[in-house]
Amino acid sequence: MINPGKILEHTTKKAKVNLHCLTDVHVGSKVFDRELFLKAIKTIKDDPNALWFGNGDMLEFIPPNYHIPEGDQLFDNNEQYSQFVKMVRPIMDKCVFMRGGNHDTLRSVRLAGIDIIRVLCDDLEVPYFPFPGYAVINYKHNRFTFASGHGKSGAKNGDMELIKLRNIFPDADMYYLGHNHQLYAKPVDSFEIMQDSEEVKRQWFVRGGSFIGYAEYARYAMFEPQTKGWVEIRLSDKDPEYIVHRK
Fold it and tell me: Would you say the pTM of this structure is higher than 0.90?
């Protein structure tokens, strides 16, 4: 487990890394897009330069006696856990970390005192990253630093929570959140004194999308429909390239 205040570092000898950011999968939801998630898994499995991380709400996870009826999911939580493990096991050797979200971690801790995603990470032998924080990908002679968290706000302007993340963790190349199912990657420039006498520093804001359609709770609350998909970051000797995989 990555304790608060510690920085997760992942080192590879590869000269190129394609980092896939998978968030808000919601295995078990009535509108979970299994085909799209399996496409992401196959993309990662077939790419020798691929790495990935899981950013929370990996399971739909509606516990018994919760304020949401269990019938709002396709199958129970045991089956969600089992199916998720079967799907991701072929790419676990490429996993940098996983964290939980409000659906899986917060619900399981609140009702049972057990973090279901921490248990999942222990079973799959990958680092568990419970809180927002820095992560570093070291590849050949390069270093890519990003700050990430699951996210908490459902506000229409997704940048506002990313700005909050940047205020707390200012020294990152990229800021990444999930939760609100928005899907975008965009550059954000600021002026700093750089070593080559330039004053512009480029960082990126990313909201990571999801693998579910328009859920009933979202329809009831009149949330805006969001495009399904995920973000991939291609790292090399050149500037990072951000690829948004949309469905």
Answer: yes
Of residues 16, 11, 37, 14, the one with CA closest to residue 25: 37
Residues 203-226 have pLDDT tens digits of 999 999 999 998 877 788 788 889
Q: Which tokens sit at 193?
A: 């004194």
Which residues form the domain of 65?
8-150+208-246
> Does residue 201 form part of some domain?
no
Domain count of the fold of the chain: 1
Residue 71 has what pLDDT?
66
Q: Is residue 109 part of a domain?
A: yes
Provide CB contacts within 8 A for 69, sequence distance 6+. 62
| 3-class secondary structure per residue, the chain | CCCCCCCEEEEECCCCEEEEEECCCCECECCECHHHHHHHHHHHHHCCCEEEEEECCCECCCCCCCCCCHHHECCCHHHHHHHHHHHHHHHHHHEEEEECCHHHHHHHHHHHCCCHHHHHHHHHCCCECCCCEEEEEEECCEEEEEEEECCCCCCCCCHHHHHHHHHHCCCCCEEEECCCCCEEEEEEEEECCCCCCCCEEEEEEEEECCCECCCHHHHHCCCCCCCCEEEEEEECCCCCEEEEEEC
62 domain-assigned: yes
In tens, the pLDDT along 220-238 reads 878 888 999 999 999 999 9
Q: 62 is written with which tokens?
A: 């509606």
